[in-house]
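Two proteins follow. First one:
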Amino acid sequence: MDRRTFLASSAAAAAGLSCRSLAGDFPAAVDSFAPRPPAFAVIPVVGDGKWIWTEPPKDQRGYLEPRLFELSIGIELQGTGNAAPLMASTPVPLELPEQKVEDVRIRTEGCAAEIRRLAPEAGQLFLAADGIVRGQRIIAEAIYTLSLCKQYHGFEKEQFPATQKAPHKELRLYLGDSPGIQTRDKPVKDLAAKLGGQLAHSWDKAQAFHKWVWENITARIGPYTNVLTALKDRVGDCEERAAVFVALCRASGIPARLVWLPNHNWAEFYLVDEAGEGHWIPAHTSCYSWFGWTGAHELVLQKGDNIRIPELGKSQRLLEDWMRRSGAKPEARYFADLKPLPPTDDAKNQGTTTADAGPGERSKSASGEWLNMGKYAKEKFVRR
């Protein structure tokens, strides 16, 4: 847990109950889940060249063009009767190379709450309370200031040895099956061999898988199926398309994982360069078609696709909003509001940007969909 997250969770615990100790004492109870988060961005986006790149920069490398965003994300429970005890959670972002947490604080009412790291790059806001009665409101809210970046590192095939060393222990999770991502079944292994079997270099294999997904999995919005169904029916939205890419990479010995954003997924695959340094390389298999770089400011909610929830005793591909309680089921609202912030005076004085906060405003609805908001909501270069 990074320093900012630790301070936020410690402050919340000091103000009320200890989430971890309370969770450990919970008896068997009833689970309820909010609607599964949709991931359906399938229409290719034509960038405007400013807010969203149409091509990578020619003279810059790294995590570029940081933009400040404010995020409020949380859980509100309204009592309908007596329930005791109860817990609930919602996915929240963690700090990543392309996503810097400038500040985060937790506001609570009638409960304790903390930000829990469930995996290296997946976390949740976790709420725990002794109980709730009819008419009582319980709320936990994480309020962030984040810097989101585009990324371009100039990755090229020549940077990476054709023969990659066996992945270290921490990467083995990204070589096997995940919920809904089959990697060892015959259709996956056969297709991976057909597309990449004659290619000696892992970069070439990943490019071949990326191209095949774009050309052979027809974009169609719908609830997630799984990799085998997507290969059989040759349809899927961004989650199936990214999952097929991930499965083909894993079947070929290339570590790969899903990246989850509001209403969208893409993938990353892992290669080690000539100097022995490992890199997670983005591969966009729907909406954006970039390979090796990312030209938009996107909030990352989770990386990885096999996240174990301690209280539920099972793994999830994408973290869901859920609640556990004994007694009457409270009304639950899982909310989030993301807003771009105007640039600082220092940035404006340096002439690097304007006072326009830009696109990216979103609000999470009761269905789990993050709706486009603000003056750019209907622009054709903004992802739906």
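Second one, unrelated to the first:
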Amino acid sequence: MNPSLDIVQLNEQIRQDSQFIATLLAEMRKTIVGQNNMTERLLIGLLANGHILLEGVPGLAKTLAIKSLAQAVNAQFSRIQFTPDLLPADLIGTMVYSPQDGKFSVKKGPVFANFILADEINRAPGKVQSALLEAMQERQVTIGGTTYPLPEPFLVLATQNPLEQGGTYPLPEAQLDRFMLKVIISYPSKAEEQQILRQNVQTHSTSESIQPVLDAASLLAARQTVKAVYMDEKIENYIINLVFASRYPEQHQLSHLKNYINYGASPRASINLALAAKAYAFIKQRGFVIPEDVRSVAHDVLRHRIGITYEAEADNVTAEQIINDLLKVVDVP
């Protein structure tokens, strides 16, 4: 992208470069009914090169949505079912001894793929989480003292069930911070549930197969275009003010939140707010970011990065409510 292009030319170019978004969404909607917010957030993570954590009760198509996205992008897909007895070697691979030639060879694990579905990620123990953490942050894994780069694009799409907490391991804050977005999945509407019912119980209904509409090279090119989306300094300051308000609420007319916030959002929150807002603008076929783009992604970027105190839990104050207060008080440019 030529930096000398003015905003009108940039807008027009991004309008052209984002044409594939509608086709990609159409393919995913062959299998996904409703859940527009979830599919939109999956696209944001895809375009902004950010990992996504989906949280919702069973049966809300979390796994199906991730699998459908991988099929539409024509990329290598691995599903890893996280269990308490999972070992790091089951994730990243291990050294295998061959009696024939008396040597060790590397057997790569399922993490060597473009799309990783980490199903029920909070059911795996700490050692597995550490192995995944290196893969998410460094885009590489270490096997037998040798480091191996992971393929590009590389995206971890994890799910967790908020209901069954027996036998689960809460994700460490350091790992949660590596997820660009934490998306809360809600129940479908009555009309959507009726459509889901008909698709799955009627004998004449046929499920359409998803066709790949985007290859890895085109996706990597689209990511470069997303980075070129224009963000004014006023928007940058707005993002920084939101993050700083979560750390020092008393300095932003939010003194009532001081005893409810254990720790505020990290610098990754600022980075991911900017990247997610740019990706959201790209999806909306705009070459520039507006404040509403930031506000649209703020909950998904911040909800897992703001730690609440025991006092907040006792008063039934959630991270969602804290973010709502931040968005109300911080001045919009």
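SUMMARY FIELD: The domain at 229-329 is CATH 1.10.8.80 (Helicase, Ruva Protein; domain 3). The chain has a mean pLDDT of 84.
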